[in-house]
Amino acid sequence: MEHRPHEPSQTADRAPNGTADTVAARTRAFVILPDLKQPADARSASAGTSVPARTPEARLEEVIGLALAIDLDVVASGVVRLAAPRPATLFGTGKVDEIKLRITTDDIGLVVIDRPLSPVQQRNLEKAWGVKVLDRTALILEIFGDRANTREGALQVELAHLQWQKSRLVRSWTHLERQRGGFGFLGGPGETQIEADRRMIQERITRLERDLESVRRTRSLHRKKRNRMDQPVVALVGYTNAGKSTLFNRLTNSDVFAQDLLFATLDPTLRRVHLPHGVEIVLSDTVGFISDLPTHLVAAFRATLEEVVEADLILHVRDIAHTDSAAQSADVAATLDALGIDVHEPGRVIEVWNKIDLLTDPQRDKLLAESGTETVAVSALTGVGVDRLLSTVEGRLTAGRDRVTVSLPTEEGELLAWIYRSTEVLERVDGDDSIRLVVRISPSTSERFLERAGAFVVP
């Protein structure tokens, strides 16, 4: 195994508010990436794709970032090459003993394994090593529990955690095999502890799903209201830490929490944004995606992600300076596909190539020159390219709208104000006794516009 020592993280101590059995901050942790050898046919199939495979080193860096996101003190990390996973312990006996020695020597209190573990594997490894073991799913759940700052976020995290916990209630713990006495006059075998635990978990899941259905209905009502007001919704999506929240703050002049941290944003945030010619949109910042995101996590966050599903336009924010940018993009596309969104649907998605400030001058100039209607290169940090992005969004949302010229008498001040509120004013020429406007009208406003301003339309 390739061991890599790590300096203690410099993040401040804080007490996470995770879902259950929360990992204590500053726990000394050992991060392990099991690297399963692919069969030759799988490697050749992968080589035939346009998306480069992630290197083990890049994957290890990502899981270390996940561990640091909940203030774990990562003191060691390594890649373990596996010919085939062992059903009982994942690793072979010799490797289990080797890791045990490292745990004892470095006084490690937690092992993070970047792979889903079966309940049996987790139990056996914890018994062999004498420390708590987190697999990838449990680690992401810990982060989500730490990030949930609203009631909705807490509900979604708890639902995801209970669904995961329920799947692990198998007959592998002796304390769950005890029987409780039966009820009623006849007695009977009663129910086992595992059955009681499963029933209680299911009851709680049902209540959470009911509460989240209420959230979903409320969001639906808000969307209908925005539709009546002709406010398009633009959703930011992307791989975690791609810079969505920084871009959101840049576009909205907000101060949403944005940090170089995986899953810095969990709860959705919506703000109004005025495009260059006056169109008002609702911009939505959402939770970041990640590779191998458990399907039940996507399902639990369905209420939040419906803002993406129902969005008029999706901005896929990519960290274009990241070595795994193409692979991350493919992971985002796969998650959107799971939500029923086709990223190749014409007019639905604009790729935003973010963090060009981290590129060399020639690389940055090349990407800026390539910016068009499908891709826009920006730096959310410095603001370069943001004006072009807003113009591109406006062009995409207003494609097909009618352009109309009106000539208003100067005394029609109220009508002039309404036109500015309800249409896009593209041009304005002030005369001595009239104001000439070129406006763009949405289909939903067309009838009302003709009622109020039809008499002033220039043929």
Short description:
By secondary structure, this protein is of the alpha/beta class.
Explain what you see.
Strand 13 (424-430) and strand 14 (434-441) form a beta hairpin. It contains 15 helices and 14 strands. The strands form 3 sheets. A 6-stranded mixed beta sheet has the order 7-8-6-9-10-11, with helices on both faces. It has a 5-stranded mixed beta sheet with strand order 1-3-2-4-5, sandwiched between helices. A 3-stranded antiparallel beta sheet has the order 12-14-13. Helix 5 (136-147) packs antiparallel against helix 6, helix 6 (151-167) runs antiparallel to helix 7 (193-228) and helix 7 packs parallel to helix 10 (302-309). The protein is of the alpha/beta class and 459 residues long. It has helices spanning 40-47, 56-68, 93-105, 119-129, 136-147, 151-167, 193-228, 244-252, 295-300, 302-309, 325-338, 361-370, 386-398, 413-422, 443-453, and strands spanning 2-5, 28-36, 73-82, 110-113, 132-135, 233-238, 269-274, 280-285, 313-319, 349-354, 375-377, 402-409, 424-430, 434-441. It has 4 domains: 2-144, GTPase HflX, N-terminal domain (Rossmann fold); 149-210, no CATH class; 231-398, Rossmann fold (3-Layer(aba) Sandwich), CATH 3.40.50; 402-456, Alpha-Beta Plaits, CATH 3.30.70.
What integer value in Å does the Rg equal? 27 Å
| Low-confidence runs of at least 5 consecutive residues | 7-21, 39-49, 171-190
Report the CATH topology name of the largest domain: Rossmann fold
Q: Hey, roughly how much beta strand do the residues contain?
A: 15-25%
Q: What is the number of helices?
A: 15
Order of helices and strands: EEHHEHEHEHHHEHEEHHEHEHEHEHEEH
Q: What's the architecture of the largest domain in CATH terms?
A: 3-Layer(aba) Sandwich
Helix content: 40-55%
* Total individual domains: 4
Average pLDDT metric: 81
Instruction: Return the structural class.
Output: alpha/beta
Cα distance spanning the termini: 78 Å
Quick one: CATH superfamily of the largest domain? Answer: P-loop containing nucleotide triphosphate hydrolases
Strand order of the largest sheet: 7-8-6-9-10-11
How many beta-strand runs? Answer: 14
The major β-sheet equals: 6 strands, mixed
What's the CATH class of the largest domain, please? Alpha Beta
Shape: elongated
